[in-house]
Amino acid sequence: MTGFNLSEWALERRSLVIYLMLVAVLAGALSYVRLGRNEDPAFTIRTMVVQAAWPGATAADTMKQVTERLERQLQETPHLDFLRSFTRPGLTTIFVNLKGSANARDVSDTWYQVRKTIGDIRHTLPVGIVGPAFDDDFGDTFGIVYGFTSDGFTQRELRDRVEAIRSRLLGVPDVAKIELLGAQDEVIFVEFSKKELANLGVDRTALIAALQAQNVVMPTGTIQTGAERISLRVSGSFQSEQDVAGINFAAGGRMLRLSDLAAVRRGYADPPQPLFRINGHPAIGLAIAMRDGGDILALGRNVKAAMAAITADLPIGIEPSLIADQAVVVDKAIGEFMTSLVQAIAIILAVSFVSLGLRPGLVIALAIPLTLAIVFPSMELLRIDMQRISLGALIIALALLVDDAMTTTDATLNRLALGESKMVAASYAFRTHALAMLAGTLVTIAGFIPVGFAASSASEYTFSLFVVVAIALLASWFVAVIFAPLLGVAILRPPKQTGAAAPGAVFRLYRRLLVLAIRARWLTLGGTAALFVASVLALPLIPQQFFPLSDRPELLVDISLPQNASIFASEAAARRLDETLTGDPDVGHWSTNVGRGAIRFYLPLSVELPNEFFSQAVVVARNVAARERLRAKLERFLADEFPNAISSVSPLGLGPPVGWPLQYRVSGPDVERVRDIALEVARILGSDPSARSTNFDWMEPERQVRIRVNQDEARLLGLSSQAVSTVLNTVVSGTPVTQVRDDIYLVNVVARATDEHRVSLASLRTLQVPIPGGRTVPLSQFASFEYDQEFPLIWRRDRVPTLTVRAAIPDGVLPERIVNALAPAIAKLRATLPPSYDVVVGGTVEESRRSQASVMAVVPVMLFVMFTVLMLQVQSFPRLLMVVSVAPLGLIGVVAALLLSGQPLGFVAILGVLALLGMISKNAVILIGQIEAERAQGKGPWEAAVDASSSRFRPIMLTAISTVLGMIPIAPTVFWGPMAFAIMGGLLVATVLTLVFLPTLYVAWSGGKEPVTTSDSAGAA
Predict the structure, then answer these.
(1) Where would you find the membrane-spanning parts of this chain (predicted)?
(2) 302, 380, 428, 779: which could join 767 in a potential S-S bond, CB 3.0 to 4.6 Å?
(3) Within this chain, do residues 391 and 517 fall inside the same structural domain, yes or no?
């Protein structure tokens, strides 16, 4: 390379370069300390929840009048992927899911548009609608969860304490929000007997109106004087249940207290709100979320210090328990990864010292921290935390970033051996290899483009892999051409004997094999092609996987009772689970959520919305081995104790949340027909012995009592359907009539009948309904009763009723295998369906295909960038084709490594395969450039190929060995293992092929002839 030489520039300005080195190290050290720590990279949950209530409506009316109207409007949402909703009688819940291509800013703008457009159609919804309400914080992660139990304190006293603790913790740095779990709202019940009211001649409606009128908050005026302003206040508002009980009413010419007419007592919401339990005891939880960009380790320390001070002030009987602590998990994970990083550095340095010697190895050793010192400030600038993906990227990059430093150091040693001065030798690498190294670096970075720019949640999850690797490789190139030459001048010494060094045994063996391969060129090329074809054919033998399970000790235990089950039934089921967990030696601790799923304490968690029939326990085992033992025990327990429930026991997953691994969505306009098709899909799914616990997301109808009012008879009595509904609601469920303002709480005053009137179906017939004139008549006088059925909820997807058939799988079985095995039967069923009905694969398989498709969609961009960089470097179509022909050969090693190790070909492994293309192309383009340089000296194709390959043998092999050995620390990990094995096997085989296949292909393409001296000089180069 002629012209400006960056290495010479650096050598001429040593003081400035040394200063820059010191600044880089200091900045890197400071940034490393300041970098945020987290368990997983932040990725956007592209889901908003829209809810609306229509009290009293049937499921069918709610779906047609509310769900349908809202979904029609929501289908106009920008970046919409699909809508998913479930409708219950009087309640609709819609999940608005955006495409993976929507970035964080698009998502924020879209949620604003959703609020605006739904607000525009609010007037078109039925009268009586409550809402719609919007939840776009669905993806908040509450990494620290405390639970508080009490002994000798009421629920209200415990809540007062927890609310006070919440207020204090909100002042802790990095705390964004805190949610209460399991807190029960207080209620003042006014329970009356309909018969007693009738006997006393008290009109219930007038009684309620009097309660509301006395407790109303209204302005009472202000007196303005010449000197001051005096506000007027009217007494009478309720401060407690005693005030409610003491209110007087005029009835029959006398004054009666409310306590003479009804029982007034303070209690809690009935039925209860979602409950929270710790180790089998009722509790209130505090879930703490960190602000964006915060450091979870610092947050953990700050919260722990604050809780220590708070705990010291708590009265005896209130006990805090740490339920989830992401800080500890992250600290452990980062500690393990830093250990892996140190091990990788030690391995690479060992390779460098052994192969190059002490002084050259020292140059490589210093280049590594200098490169990392540039990477850390760049990560801080781009707001990339130290987390699972970025730390893995550092290890991957570490194995790659020594390549340029090795090339520069090796070239300097060779020139020193030829007797050149240190200045000339140190700048030689830039003159001859700088552009090739830069092209190779850019090609390697291009191999990670699908990671960075694929439009999917999985790619967003792994985005920092692309960024960190790109920064590290670019930094390594600048270190190699600016800092390494200066280090080389200071550290390297000319060898005692100048001239060509005596070749080693490995080098002599390689050169002999290369000559034999070129002589049998067609056999070499044909054999390589045959191996490549065999590896392609063997690909189906590798198990497929989306993301692996986590190695955290938690287990999620889900119990979903029939969908008409009450929260009392769910609580009873949770108590039975608590009993079997109590005293188990494998259990560390556990928490149970009754009536809802666990709050998102872990980013990839699939969150379940509140439903009375659903409970979820988070069981923390003592270690991973205990987790697996406990998993087997709990699966047996659930199968024996809850045969009619949909239950599952699963570890936490990695990657974007998916839910049940096996899913088939059955959709169509008629609910009953969809139900029949789903039963057939379940039969097919159940035919595979690996599919376990086949179930449906909705299926069972629930009972209901239809009260058919004889409208003519009701009119004669002066009644209407509205009046009857109001009476029934008041008697059976209770009606909030006013609120007591108690400290920071608003306590509803609920008027309802006594228990004997509320819980008995038989008493409905004799229920006394007041009519004008002060009399009452039994409900059966003008109404008849009959039993009926309706679905408690109906799921829809894109406005079409959709029933999902789901199943679990045992460990070691991948959902892709089952889906592929059942594909013929599913296809046969689909062929028999009417055009408006369909069966679609969902779950892990669908998400994996979507993510892989998003990656493959970016592959053309990756190839374009690679080809452009390579063409700029080689500037020849034949040479470009030769480089490109080598890149896919890494698949031979990938397939062999994955088959031998038993690792699956998952999303992360595919990213490793794509990255391999860049690594292999880098070596190929540098080798082609060296061959062309040899030919420029007048050598023939054969001699140039042999000599160039021989001169590049050591740096290419050293880089490959360093990369392969540097992957060893992360090879055993659950998340990075498949990628590590893919890169190790692929790069090792591809390196050998680059050094053998590529020169052979070059000679065959160029038609080179073997010179007479080749055989004689085979061992003397």
Answers:
(1) 16-35, 337-356, 362-382, 435-455, 461-492, 513-542, 853-873, 880-900, 906-929, 956-975, 981-1005
(2) 779
(3) no
For the segment 45-65, the average pLDDT, to the nearest whole number, is 86
| Cis peptide leading into residue 271 (ω within 30°) | yes
Q: Taken in order 393, 398, 399, 400, is the CA torsion positive or negative?
A: positive
Nearest residue to 580 (alpha-carbon basis) of 557, 601, 562, 599:
557
User: Residue type for 690, please?
Assistant: S
**Exposed/middle/buried for 770, CB within 10 Å: 0-12, 13-18, 19+?**
buried
The predicted model scores a pTM of 0.77
**Residues 488 and 364 both lie in one domain:** yes
Element spanning 388, H or E: helix 388-417
Each residue's pLDDT tens digit, 653-680:
776 677 788 899 999 998 889 999 999 9
Same domain, 515 and 446: no
Tens of pLDDT, residue by residue over 374-396, are 999 999 998 888 887 888 788 77
CA dist., res. 205 & res. 209, Å (int): 6
728 neighbors 707 (Cβ within 8 angstroms) = yes
Question: Is the dihedral angle over the CA atoms 400, 405, 411, 414 positive or is it negative?
Answer: negative
- Alpha-carbon distance of 571 to 596, in angstroms, equals 11
DSSP-derived secondary structure letter, 122:
G
Domain count, the chain: 4
- Residue 144 belongs to some domain of the structure: no
DSSP assignments along 471-539, one per residue? HHHHHHHHIIIIIHHHHHHHH----SS-SSPPP-HHHHHHHHHHHHHHHTHHHHHHHHHHHHHHHHHHG
Q: Residue 618 carries which DSSP code?
A: E
**Domain residues for 99?**
47-135
Say which residue the tokens 């890494």 belong to: 890
- Residue 132: cis peptide before it, omega within 30 degrees of 0: yes
Decide the pairing of beta strands 318-325 and 186-192.
Answer: unpaired
- Tell which of 772, 790, 808 closes a domain: 790
Within-domain flag for 843 = no
